Amino acid sequence: MEGKTVLITGANSGIGKETAREMARQGARVIMACRNQETANAAREEIVKETGNNNVIIKKIDLGSQRSVREFAADILKTENKLDVLIHNAGMALAFRGATSEDAAYLYYVSKYANIYFARELAQRLEGSGITVNFLHPGMIDSGIWRNVPFPLNYPMLAVTKCFFKTPKQGAETTIYLASSKDVEGVSGKYFMDKKEHGLSAAAMDMDKAKKIWEESAKIVGLTASDPKI
Ligand SMILES: NC(=O)c1ccc[n+]([C@@H]2O[C@H](COP(=O)([O-])OP(=O)(O)OC[C@H]3O[C@@H](n4cnc5c(N)ncnc54)[C@H](OP(=O)(O)O)[C@@H]3O)[C@@H](O)[C@H]2O)c1
């Protein structure tokens, strides 16, 4: 990955941090896009020390704020000549304002469907451009994502994640594969698990829905005529 720039959101913990570590190990310039600067600094320090790659930088972003996203994007456009790999890793679960844990679980499931529609629509829009877009399921991973499981479910959940779930390092394997392997050069719009392409349910293949979600999302984030079009 020498000479390549890799941007990873949520690189301060879990799967994102392990992905950043491996990308740095492989010699990439790594941009850690994080909202928590304290844990981001600690993660960067650990990664630089372990890999010897100083070309790891932190940029602040809160993906829950459109202002922050736009400031971040403007900064990237100003400071970077190119991005070779963009990894949309940041995510959260069970912390939806006002939702019960059962609703919250449903909203997480729906949000992951939205990720699939987004990736498939983006892949279609970028067809022929040389830019590829793929998406993945990392498996069940023992990471910070489970920290919002409410009492009393949090204790059994902790035991389950420690005993049966994969480590964040294992969880990062498919992301790293998609970011760096020659096997997937030119492959776009596909779903991966355990470094292998997998089929999708009929619902996830619904391109009318994908288009609609794209268009609604564009309205929600307030895209205007002056924004870049894809
Ligand atoms: N763990 C699993 O079993 C599993 C299964 C399927 C999919 N995934 C997906 O894998 C991805 C990585 O999750 P993980 O398991 O590694 O969990 P994690 O350790 O909780 O990492 C999630 C990362 O996303 C960041 N993040 C959340 N909201 C953000 C925001 N508004 N702005 C900026 N960053 C934000 C978090 O930052 P903070 O530290 O500031 O909170 C954290 O760095 C997520 O998209 C998750 O949905 C995980």
Automatic annotation (TrEMBL):
Alphabetized Pfam families for the sequence: adh_short
InterPro entries the record matches: NAD(P)-bd_dom_sf, SDR_fam
SUPFAM superfamilies registered for this protein in UniProt: NAD(P)-binding Rossmann-fold domains (SSF51735)
Keywords attached to this entry: Oxidoreductase
MF GO annotations: oxidoreductase activity
PANTHER family, per database record: PHOSPHATIDYLINOSITOL-GLYCAN BIOSYNTHESIS CLASS F PROTEIN-RELATED, WW DOMAIN-CONTAINING OXIDOREDUCTASE-LIKE PROTEIN
Protein name stated in the entry: Uncharacterized protein
Organism of derivation: Hermetia illucens
